[in-house]
Amino acid sequence: STYARSGRLPQQQWSTRFSFILAAAGASVGLGNIWKFPYVAGENGGGAFILVYLACIALLGVPMLMAEVLIGRRGQQNPVNSMATLAREAGASPAWKNVGRLGVMTGFLLLSFYVVVAGWALAYMPLTATGAFTGVEPPRIGQMFEQHLQQPLALIGWSTLVLVLTLGIVGRGVRQGLEKAANWLMPLLFLFLLILAVYAGSIGHFGAAVEFMFRPDFDKLSASGVLIALGHAFFTLSIGGGAMMIYGSYLSPQVSIARTSILVAVLDTAAALLAGLAIFPIVFAYGLEPGNGPGLIFVTLPIAFGQMPMGTVFGTLFFLMLSVAALTSAFSLIEPAIAWLTEKRGMSRFKASVLGGSGIWVLSLGTVFSFNIGADWTLAGKTFFEALDYLISGWMLPLGGLLMALFTAWVMKPEVTALELGGDSAGYRLWLGLIRFLVPAIIMLIFLQAIGLISL
Ligand code: PFF
Ligand code: NA
After folding, report:
1. Contact at 8 Å (CB) between 26 and 328?
2. Transmembrane stretches, by residue range (predicted)?
């Protein structure tokens, strides 16, 4: 047909639809679900926040995820080349390829702090396994986390290990690396999550947790809480970071983008809710604070692990699961850069991995030092880590997502997007309506609010 697409070789594609779903779920289920979601939900009062978050996933997240996968699947290359190809196809400005560049950059920067937090998870595995928290007084456990952050060399060691593991998998390529790892790790991850949620529910205060998570009390939700729910919906689904675009580029043309994207969003949401059900029953049973911030799983949970029956096993399993979730997301954060270096610069996958990995490693030092020797190198009151997280989660991911949404909605020909989404149906028109109007309107509102032009 007029709109036929050029394709990747079969060995550069996911071998089955299910492999794509697992890999994309791997990209999406990560620190965002298990570390970030429980503490932001805790800080923002629980139920009402979670309700808004779920609405954001359904109304904005799913259509945006579809848009990003669609660009990749149609473009069949790394994000930069895919955007360039599709802009040419639509007769639009070649400058659209900068959206691909932004995606590659965002993933790269995000990975530089992601490996550090993932390193904490890895470090807490042997710590829990050797009984370091057993019978220890709560204040002392808080100090242990502080002390952990005070040792730059140890932090560097752990984040280097995360990076080496990531590159070891990603360097093997799509089928031997990304796909194989996701096929093994993702079912395991969901199994762990389920076991932990059931165990936590049986020894902890399951009822209190359910009430906290699912009984909306809108008095507890502020305007900024709504914005945080929205930003987190993008972060958790990996929207705007080029990850879903590159994974979409390895997807065969026969697979339904709508059905797989919805399934990935459902899996991501299930993982976040299960994480909540694994964490909050313990938090309430031991009289801990759900609103304790980023330390929630590294301070409050080890307190509980140190007191509860089988806490050593349960805790080790928990940090293993967190590490697995972080790793499968880390793959997706570096893959756009690797694909760009190999396809555009003609590098071998090995060379690209070494080069990309070295860049991330150097950048990650900024995050490491922001917890110790560089704690007072601040910008507008934010440490390097805080500034980077704010820049990426608050600006780069939503901006990338917005530009991708605008591109599929207004620049690509509807014939083309309809073809990629399986034809002009009621579902297609719903997607087009959401991506054309609701998605850009809401994201612009967030930006206006963030720069202080409006106040919601
Ligand atoms: N979705 C991941 C998480 O929830 O931890 C984070 C992430 C991965 C964001 C990949 C963006 C991205 F491109
Ligand atoms: Na996620």
Report:
1. yes
2. 18-35, 47-67, 102-123, 153-172, 184-206, 226-250, 262-288, 308-334, 354-375, 395-412, 433-454
**∠ Cα 390 392 393 (to 5°):** 70
Enclosing domain of residue 350: 10-123+154-293+309-450
Instruction: Name 154's Cβ contacts closer than 8 Å, sequence gap at least 6.
Output: 123, 148
User: Of 320, 333, 237, which Cα lies nearest the Cα of 37?
Assistant: 237
The residues facing 382 across adjacent strands are 379
**From the centroid of its chain, how far is CA 222?**
24
Burial 316-355 (b: 16+ CB within 10 A, else e): bbbbbbbbbbbbbbbbbbbbbbbbbbbbeeebebeebbee
Rounded CA Rg of the chain: 21
Question: How many domains in the chain?
Answer: 1
Q: What whole-number distance in Å separates Cα of residue 339 and Cα of residue 325?
A: 22
Return the bridge partners of 379, or none: 382
Residue 29 lies in a domain: yes
User: Tokens 């609701």 — which residue?
Assistant: 438
Smallest-distance ligand from the CA of 334:
1
CATH number at residue 111: 1.20.1740.10
Distance 316 CA to ligand 2 centre (A): 21
The per-residue pLDDT for range 349-374, each reduced to its tens digit, is: 999 999 999 999 999 999 999 999 99
Q: What residue spans of 250-348 are helical by DSSP H?
A: 257-285, 301-307, 311-345
Locate 403 and state its tokens: 């530009």
Per-residue model confidence as pLDDT tens digits over 437-447: 999 999 998 78
**ipTM rounded to 2 decimals:** 0.99
In angstroms, what is the span from residue 234 Cα to ligand 1's centroid? 8
25-31-35 Cα angle (round to 5): 130
Ligand 1 pocket mutation, candidates 105, 108, 110, 404, criterion most atoms within 8 A of CB: 110
- Contact in structure between 314 and 131 (CB atoms under 8 Å): no
382: helix, strand or coil:
strand
Measured distance between the N- and C-terminal CA atoms of the chain, rounded to whole angstroms: 48
SS3 of 344, please?
A: helix
Task: Give the model's pLDDT for residue 210.
Answer: 97
- Would 129 be classed as within a structural domain? no
Of 452, 445, 361, 372, nearest to 119 by C-alpha is 361
Q: Is 403 inside any structural domain?
A: yes
